[in-house]
Amino acid sequence: MNNFTYIAADTPKQAANIISQNPDAAFIAGGTNLIDLMKENIAKPNQLIDLNKIPGLDEITELPDAGLRLGALARNADTAYHPLVQERYPLLADAILAGASAQLRNMATNGGNLLQRTRCYYFYDIATPCNKREPGSGCAAYDGYNRMNAILGSSEHCVAVFPSDMCVALAALNATVNVSGATGERQIPFNEFHRLPGDTPQLDNNLQHGEIITSIDLPPGGLNKNYSYLKLRDRTSYAFALVSIATAFELKDGLIVDARIALGGVAHKPWRVTEAEEFLKNKQPAKESFTQAATLILKGAVGLKHNAFKIELAKRAIVRNCLTALNPDK
Amino acid sequence: MKSEPQVINNEHDKLPAALAPELDIVLRVNGHDRTITVRPWVTLLDALRGRLDLTGTKKGCDHGQCGACTVLVNGKRINSCLTLAVMQTGNDITTIEGIAQDGMHPMQQAFIDHDAFQCGYCTPGQICSAIGMLNEGHAHTRGDVQELMSGNLCRCGAYTNIVDAIMEVKEAQGNE
């Protein structure tokens, strides 16, 4: 790790004020990703601002509209096992528990989960070009070993995927990210939080330097009856997704009245296609419709040398997971 | 003679000109307050091993992938390689050296009884992780134990016996 100074902040405002005066400072919360990136000499902050001592940001509280507020400093494990999350948002609980290991989930925070960097092999290897790590240097993954890389929404500049499981469920559940900065507070709809790479792959999301995530709001109605999170990976546990799917339905009188399908492991952000979800509405839940929805979701998918299999894998996983969501207890 | 830590510093214009000051911190480890002086970048793992001579906690990958460095912080298991010592003030840290009360901890005895290791390098992390898992209370079946222990690798492949050992302790706790 490089040379850096350390300070613990007492309030979000103080943290925002310190970081806004230093373009090379970084916040640290759980640290499970940032410290690793610093050991690899990928992240090189000259100052770390520790958020862990800020009181109140680790709480999970009910909102007046029966939604739920997840504090940014609440740990992933405490969130997944929280009784209200288990009862109302089981899709989120399942997605969190599909990610990382128990040790990491005990440390990693909800805010940090949104801000984790890609695990693209070339982003992690400072001996190779990477436009995300060093803008303008090129993309070694594009013609390299790209089995884990994107099939949707990528650009010639970057084919990295966003690795979170938790965020796939948050996207499906229409969460909102609450952000505080030196100039005030704002809310970012979850699907507008992360970015596609385009020609600025160094930007993972739309958070500005100086802004801090304070919490994540879940709207009421957690779609807690017909839901399923499916994660396909190279080993049974503790591996990043090749493809993951968060599916939830609201059914009424035998018809689908609300459908959510979000994909992880395929793009630079959790992938949702409104057209496919609208297509399923007011239809009876049936394999044929799910297959057509899967085709709509994968429209425009492009396979690279080593990851073209993920296109068919994703389609089949969508259909399987939609069927599972109809009977989540089986 | 005390040697200065080596600093990787390729971007002199951005990084502080002088080494960041050493910080005096108090870590509560195995029930004792220990005062140490560290630079900000010293991980909890390196502080435990290098400053406090608690070498039971092992450094495997140093990247949170193997679980050899697992310790308990406020009763919960974490990877000590992925947190800084300066971030852990005020917390109750338990290492493999601190788990035994009167004689061996039941988990230690179970690992011996079930031959749950070969080389033993992952064992302190496995035992701390297993104790943390049973504290957390989410492992109900053998399958749960396998899933919730997946953050601890054993390259000798003693997994079957490790799960046997943990299940014995778990069932004994359940029968108390």
TrEMBL record, chain A:
<dbReference type="InterPro" id="IPR016167">
    <property type="entry name" value="FAD-bd_PCMH_sub1"/>
</dbReference>
<dbReference type="GO" id="GO:0016491">
    <property type="term" value="F:oxidoreductase activity"/>
</dbReference>
<dbReference type="InterPro" id="IPR005107">
    <property type="entry name" value="CO_DH_flav_C"/>
</dbReference>
<dbReference type="InterPro" id="IPR051312">
    <property type="entry name" value="Diverse_Substr_Oxidored"/>
</dbReference>
<dbReference type="InterPro" id="IPR036683">
    <property type="entry name" value="CO_DH_flav_C_dom_sf"/>
</dbReference>
<dbReference type="Pfam" id="PF00941">
    <property type="entry name" value="FAD_binding_5"/>
</dbReference>
<dbReference type="Pfam" id="PF03450">
    <property type="entry name" value="CO_deh_flav_C"/>
</dbReference>
<feature type="domain" description="FAD-binding PCMH-type">
    <location>
        <begin position="1"/>
        <end position="223"/>
    </location>
</feature>
<dbReference type="GO" id="GO:0071949">
    <property type="term" value="F:FAD binding"/>
</dbReference>
<keyword id="KW-0285">Flavoprotein</keyword>
<dbReference type="InterPro" id="IPR036318">
    <property type="entry name" value="FAD-bd_PCMH-like_sf"/>
</dbReference>
<dbReference type="InterPro" id="IPR002346">
    <property type="entry name" value="Mopterin_DH_FAD-bd"/>
</dbReference>
<keyword id="KW-0274">FAD</keyword>
<dbReference type="InterPro" id="IPR016169">
    <property type="entry name" value="FAD-bd_PCMH_sub2"/>
</dbReference>
<dbReference type="InterPro" id="IPR016166">
    <property type="entry name" value="FAD-bd_PCMH"/>
</dbReference>
<protein>
    <submittedName>
        <fullName>Xanthine dehydrogenase family protein subunit M</fullName>
    </submittedName>
</protein>
TrEMBL record, chain B:
<keyword id="KW-0408">Iron</keyword>
<dbReference type="InterPro" id="IPR002888">
    <property type="entry name" value="2Fe-2S-bd"/>
</dbReference>
<keyword id="KW-0001">2Fe-2S</keyword>
<dbReference type="InterPro" id="IPR052914">
    <property type="entry name" value="Aldehyde_Oxdr_Iron-Sulfur"/>
</dbReference>
<dbReference type="GO" id="GO:0016903">
    <property type="term" value="F:oxidoreductase activity, acting on the aldehyde or oxo group of donors"/>
</dbReference>
<keyword id="KW-0411">Iron-sulfur</keyword>
<dbReference type="InterPro" id="IPR012675">
    <property type="entry name" value="Beta-grasp_dom_sf"/>
</dbReference>
<protein>
    <submittedName>
        <fullName>2Fe-2S iron-sulfur cluster binding domain-containing protein</fullName>
    </submittedName>
</protein>
<dbReference type="GO" id="GO:0046872">
    <property type="term" value="F:metal ion binding"/>
</dbReference>
<dbReference type="InterPro" id="IPR001041">
    <property type="entry name" value="2Fe-2S_ferredoxin-type"/>
</dbReference>
<dbReference type="Pfam" id="PF00111">
    <property type="entry name" value="Fer2"/>
</dbReference>
<dbReference type="InterPro" id="IPR036884">
    <property type="entry name" value="2Fe-2S-bd_dom_sf"/>
</dbReference>
<dbReference type="Pfam" id="PF01799">
    <property type="entry name" value="Fer2_2"/>
</dbReference>
<keyword id="KW-0479">Metal-binding</keyword>
<dbReference type="InterPro" id="IPR036010">
    <property type="entry name" value="2Fe-2S_ferredoxin-like_sf"/>
</dbReference>
<feature type="domain" description="2Fe-2S ferredoxin-type">
    <location>
        <begin position="23"/>
        <end position="99"/>
    </location>
</feature>
<keyword id="KW-0560">Oxidoreductase</keyword>
<dbReference type="GO" id="GO:0051537">
    <property type="term" value="F:2 iron, 2 sulfur cluster binding"/>
</dbReference>
<dbReference type="InterPro" id="IPR006058">
    <property type="entry name" value="2Fe2S_fd_BS"/>
</dbReference>
